[in-house]
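Customer ticket, subject: "Can you confirm the structure for L-carnitine dehydratase/bile acid-inducible protein F?"

Message body: Hello, I'm evaluating your service for our small team and ran a test protein. I'd like someone to confirm that this is what the system normally returns, since I don't have a reference to compare against.
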Amino acid sequence: MEQMKKMPLEGIRVVELATVVAAPTASRVLCAFGAEVIKVETKIGDEMRRAGEFEMVVCEDDKNPLFTIQNSGKRLTSIDLKNPDGKAAFLKLLETADVFLTNVRLPSLGRLGLDYETLHKAYPGLVYAHFSGFGPKGPTPPSPALTARRSGCA
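Agent reply: Thanks for trying us out. I re-ran your input and got the following:
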């Protein structure tokens, strides 16, 4: 019997705190190459669970094929990061991670203590990947980069 070949990212653990399209798709690619991806959702879940075929058209929960495609192969969990016990559980999860991948807006990450500077001090070996629709500097970084908003900026 032929042995299974090791995947390039096998043994890498990614903790994803992201919604909508770009960051979840990126972590899905990491998953396809063998990384273990743990997607952390809020208590109400990723909004893409309910988005329909057209942007933000309500869809029955967990019936969105785009959500399924972006998140297949991942381990999914829900953690309330505003609750002290939830925050502690999340930080414990980060202790086991190689990569933290997020697209949460920078001001929100700062309020949660999940900004780069804070996490780098606590977990110096953690790769911190932040997706921003407008980049880290200038007047628009704190703004969400949803399709409708971005198309008006063209």
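A couple of notes from the result: The chain is about 30% helix and 15% strand. Confidence is low (pLDDT under 50) at residues 148-154. Feel free to reply with more questions.
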